[in-house]
Amino acid sequence: MRQLFRLTTVLLLIVGRQAEAQFGSMADEAPPRWFGTAWGGFQFGGFVPDDESNATWDFDTNWQIRGTLERELGSRVAVGVAFSYARLPLTYSSPTSATCTRCAADATVTTYGGLVRFGGGSGFHQVAEVFVGALRYATFEQLDPRVKLAPESGNTDFAFGLGYGFGYGLAEDWQVVLVQEYLNALHERSTQVTGGGRLTQHYTTRLGMRVGF
Predict the structure, then answer these.
(1) Per-residue pLDDT for 9 more than 80?
(2) Cβ-count burial of 213 within 10 angstroms (0-12 exposed, 13-18 middle, 19+ buried)?
(3) Where do the structural domains in the chain lie, given as residue ranges?
(4) Measured on CA atoms in the order 140, 142, 148, 149, is the torsion positive or negative?
(5) Fewer beta carbons below 10 Å: N end or C end of the chain?
(6) How does pLDDT run across 163-176, given as a tens digit for each residue?
(7) 55 has a pLDDT exceeding 70
(8) Alpha-carbon distance 120 to 96, whole Å?
């Protein structure tokens, strides 16, 4: 995983240097105050014991898409909102399920909340992010046969995370960014399922294009 992160960083720097000449410099114009970022990456899910479904959810890895909207306050500091979506495979285990005591399944995992971002500008730079909001698990389905699993109403947890990475500014209003995020979700304490009452972790490696307007 570390080798992949380092290799992507090197590729990001090479692509950024080649593209900088095409986009040109925006130094003579007023810098943008608003930024939007479109992200794509891999999300690594955690292990979640859940009382409502009397089950455990052992998440695996899949693609994630993410969008952010930010306003810069000055000195390369921005605040904004973030939303992410992933459809993650998992091993679902429940002794009380009619169709799935242990089976392959998938579920939707989304996050939404506030964001504080540090870093930016032209050239190669570091980036740090702080996220506070919610993580929602929903639409659990067994793969074979394709049937819904509990909890059918979904489950929402308080979440907070830290992200760190690197960016390359092609111009004042165009930046390519690579970030590794460590997200924690506070799931309700389990009384029926062994191993409950703890933080669950989700890790994401994502690449984004940040555009000012």
Answers:
(1) no
(2) exposed
(3) 40-167+175-206
(4) negative
(5) C
(6) 999 999 988 789 99
(7) yes
(8) 51
Are the C-beta atoms of 48 and 59 separated by less than 8 Å?
yes
Q: Which H or E run includes 161?
A: strand 155-171
* C-alpha span between 162 and 179 (Å, rounded): 10
125 Cβ contact partners less than 8 Å away, ≥ 6 residues apart: 76, 119, 166, 167, 168, 169
**R_g (Cα) of the chain, nearest Å:** 20
Count of all residues that appear for the chain in the document: 213
The two tokens of residue 89 are: 């495979």
Tokens of 189: 């304490």
| CATH number of the structural domain 40-167+175-206 | 2.40.160
- Tell me the per-residue pLDDT of 86-106, one tens digit each, with 9 for 90 and over: 999 999 999 999 889 999 999
Of residues 47, 96, 52, 97, the one with CA closest to residue 191: 52
User: Do residues 10 and 4 make contact, with C-beta atoms less than 8 angstroms apart?
Assistant: no
The amino acid sitting at 99 is T
Residue 143: partners with Cβ closer than 8 Å, 6 or more residues away: 103, 104, 105, 106
Strands (E), 9-154: 34-44, 47-50, 55-59, 61-74, 77-93, 102-118, 123-142, 147-148
The CA distance from 9 to 166, in Å, is 7
pTM (2 decimals)?
0.82
Residues 120 and 72 sit within 8 Å (Cβ to Cβ): yes
Neighbours of 201 (CB within 10 A): 15
Cα 163 from Cα 72, distance rounded (Å): 18
